[in-house]
Structures are given as structure tokens and as C-alpha cells.
Amino acid sequence: MYDLAIIGAGINGTSVAYEFAKAGKKVIIFDMDGVASGGSGAAGAFIAPKFSKEGELKELLNDAFIYSMKFYEQNFPHLLKKIKLFHSTTDEESSKTLEAYKKNTPLKMKKVSEDFLNTLSPSAKEYAHICIDAGIVNAHAMCRALCKNAKYIEQKVKSLIFEDDYWVVNEVYSAKNILLATGAYDAVIKEPYIKLSGVWGHRIDIKTSTKNLYSIHRDISISPSFDGVIAIGATHDVHYHPQRTTTAYDPKKGRIELLAKAEKTIKLQDVEIVKDFTGLRSGSTDYMPIIGSLVISKETLASKNIRYEIESSNTSSYTYYPNLYMINGSGGYGFVLGPYIAKILKEHILDAKEISKRLSPDRFFTRWAKKSF
Ligand SMILES: Cc1cc2nc3c(=O)[nH]c(=O)nc-3n(C[C@H](O)[C@H](O)[C@H](O)COP(=O)(O)OP(=O)(O)OC[C@H]3O[C@@H](n4cnc5c(N)ncnc54)[C@H](O)[C@@H]3O)c2cc1C
Asked: Which of 7, 108, 346, 364 is deepest in the core (most CB within 10 A)?
């Protein structure tokens, strides 16, 4: 019997595996295609804050950025490269936002070298930019390291049954708690109020004689050179979903698009493609991550008393799946949020700490139920 069975071995699932194993719990983790085979394996895995105007997402991501940089540095220093992040805007409007951000942020500005600026295209120099100390992690190795103390099973989870007081996964493995960490891939438990958008992304590792010392963040991500290799990635296709199409993704077309976008920022010489990585990133409808227990919509709606409670948004009388949790909706910030939200979830499950209503899945149930009646 496992304390926790996790479905999905991306950065979210593996970060929770790490927290539970550290707390002495027995963890089993499933992935249908391999550790970091989804969005996490495609990520450039920059650890960066959100350079935007005020707002709860910006606040959350700034806290998560500071927490996760320390977390990776303390626990996995060999998988983190501390690097300067150069973020540049692409139009007047976002330049204004960035200038406002720079005035208010407690983060220290770093000087950008002239040599680096000379490698940039005129348009990348034209608009506002910011340079701060940030990081980049090795996405695949990080996910593997995070779940190293869990039992890993490469298998698609097709069935989850709750019997007596525990869950049975695929009719074989039993666990006290279940965590759904399946990203933008088809849900194992389908609830109509959970709506996740999947954005297909593609990253290429290229060999190039151009040397780059910065993480570049524009409408595309460009990594620093490591042993002559630079990673270029973007999430750009809102229509392609590998589980809902019979047409294979065309990596050749994707490479051309990525290189064309990269050229708008930096001049790259002698380019040779080394490897492609693809995957979906998932986002929630309000862009905030989703962490916590899932409401059983049918049972909750069937209760007359609870219908009344829905109107007053009192979640205490909702019916929840027993000992079943979700972690998802990290958008383009999975590696920034992963360690931070995994800790919140661990403290909720093991220490009964409350999760903010702005993060828990029931916020979507309340809105959906109100619309349904
Ligand atoms: C090109 C690209 C670049 C990005 N760059 C960055 C970046 O620089 N910094 C950053 O922080 N974030 C970045 N992101 C976003 C980040 O990758 C995502 O936020 C993150 O991967 C989400 O992690 P996850 O664990 O929720 O989902 P995923 O990594 O998608 O993991 C879900 C896993 O669940 C598995 N699964 C699904 N269903 C089942 C099932 N039924 N049974 C078993 N297994 C199942 C899948 O195989 C998959 O491995 C990028 C994303 C992309 C695509």
C-alpha cells in the first residue's frame, strides 16, 4: 500500500513525489510515456518571474521564483545553472509595462554587456529590456532526480477505483491518496468545471558557432550556449493536441518557425539541429495554477441544500472525491511554480493546512454551478 499514487511524471507530479518522499511517505508515480515526456520535457526550464503589471498571478510567480531558485540551489545545485536573464519586449505597450515593473521590483537590475547587445537584432534593442539574476534547470534530469525515491511505473492510468478506504490504480496498485498531475493530456477523471487549455510547444537544441551567455526571453526562449548548444523553444500552437488528432506534428515546419522567430532576436551562425522536444503546456481559464481536492459535481449538484450553498459560495458542504487531489494549470511557468505549489499541496495533505481559494479547484466548480442554475 502506497501513501500516495501520482499520475503524471512532469515537474508537478515529480515535485510532489519529492515532498512526500522527504516526509518519509511511500510514493508510486505513473507516466504513460516516461518521466518528463509531456510539457515538462519540452520546456526550456527557465526560472524567471513574470514581468507584468500588478496582479495575483504576478505576485504568486514572484514568490514562486524566489522560493524555487533557493529550492533548486539547495537541493539540486548540479542541475541548476545560475544565469542572467535578458527579457526584452516586442512593442510600445509591453515596453511601458516593463518600465513600470522595473521601477517597482525589489529585484536587482544587472548590466548587460555591449558584446551581447551587439549579437542582438535591431528590433530586440529597440524596445525596453530587463536583466536580472535567474536560473535554468535541466528539465529531464530534474524531474528524474525529484522522483528518484518513488517507485516509477511506465503505464497509462486507465482506471481509478475507490474501495473501502483506499484507491486502486489500474486494478493492481493500492494507495491511500491519489494525485492527478496529468497536465494538458486527457483527464483521468473528467469533471465539467475543470477546463484546461493545452498549448503545443516545440523546443530545438541547435549547434551554432554563435556564443550566447544569457537566457533570452522574448516571444521565444533562447538559452545560453552550453558546450556549443543553444535551446530555442516556444509554445505556439493552441490547436494541436497529440491525443485528439490523427495527423502527426510536422517537426520540420516547427523548426523553420522557431529559427525564424529566434532570428528576430539574435543572429545565429552555422546552425545545425541536434534534437527536437515537443509537448503540451496546460493553463487554467484564470491563468492561476490549480491545487487541491476535486468536487464531485454530480453529487454536489444533486443535493438541494448544496445548491443553496453554491449561491453563497460556501464550499464546506460540497462533496469531494475522497483523498484525491489535483495539481495542474502552471502555464508557461511549470518549473517556477512546481516546487512552490508542491510544498503547498504537501502541507495541505499531510499537515491539514488550508489552500487559498484562489488556487483550489473548487473555485471553478462554484462558477460553473452558478452558471448551470
Ligand atoms: C516548449 C515549452 C517551453 C517551456 N518553457 C518553460 C520555461 O522556460 N520555464 C517554465 O517554468 N516552464 C516552461 N514551460 C511550461 C512547463 O513545461 C509546464 O508548465 C510544465 O511542464 C507543466 O508540468 P506538468 O507536470 O503539469 O505537466 P506535464 O509535464 O505535461 O506532465 C504530465 C504528464 O502526465 C502524463 N500523463 C497524462 N495522462 C496520463 C495517464 N492517464 N497515465 C499516465 N501518465 C499520464 C504525461 O505523459 C505527462 O508526462 C514550457 C513548455 C513548453 C511546451
From this structure: 7
Nearest CA to ligand 1 atom 53: 201
Quick one: which of 19, 49, 70 has its CA closest to 336?
A: 49
pLDDT computed for residue 207 by the predictor: 97
* Stretch (H or E) spanning 154: strand 151-154
Nearest to 10 by CA among 354, 372, 253, 341: 341
CA distance 373 to 370: 6
Task: Look at residue 307 in the predicted model and tell me its pLDDT.
Answer: 60
Å from CA of 46 to ligand 1 middle: 14
Q: Which three cell numbers stand for residue 305?
A: 441544500
**What 3-state DSSP class applies to 204?**
strand
The matching CATH number, chosen from 3.30.9.10, 3.40.50.10420, 3.40.50.300, 3.90.960.10, for 83-136+197-282 is: 3.30.9.10
Residue 154's DSSP bridge partners are: 31
Q: Is 43 in the pocket of ligand 1 (CB under 6 A)?
A: yes
All three cell numbers of 100, joined, read 513600470
φ, ψ for residue 327, nearest 5 deg? -140, 120
Distance CA 196, CA 185 (A): 9
Q: Is 68 in the pocket of ligand 1 (CB under 6 A)?
A: no
* Residue 329 pLDDT grade (very low, low, confident, very high; cuts 50, 70, 90): very high
Q: Which of 18, 28, 31, 238 most suits a substitution to test ligand 1, by most atoms within 8 Å of the C-beta? A: 31
200 lines ligand 1 (CB under 6 A): no
Residue ranges, comma separated, of all CATH 3.50.50.60 domains in the chain are: 2-38+142-188+285-372
Backbone φ and ψ of 62, nearest 5°: -65, -45
Instruction: Decide: 37 in ligand 1 pocket, CB within 6 A.
Output: yes
Ligand 1 mean position, distance from CA 183 (Å): 6
> Cβ of 242: how many Cβ atoms within 10 Å?
18
Distance 123 CA to ligand 1 centre (A): 31
pLDDT higher than threshold 60 for residue 309: no
Q: What pLDDT sits at residue 315?
A: 80
The DSSP 8-state label assigned to residue 120 in this structure reads: B
Where in the chain are all domains bearing CATH 3.30.9.10? 83-136+197-282
Average pLDDT over residues 40-62: 93
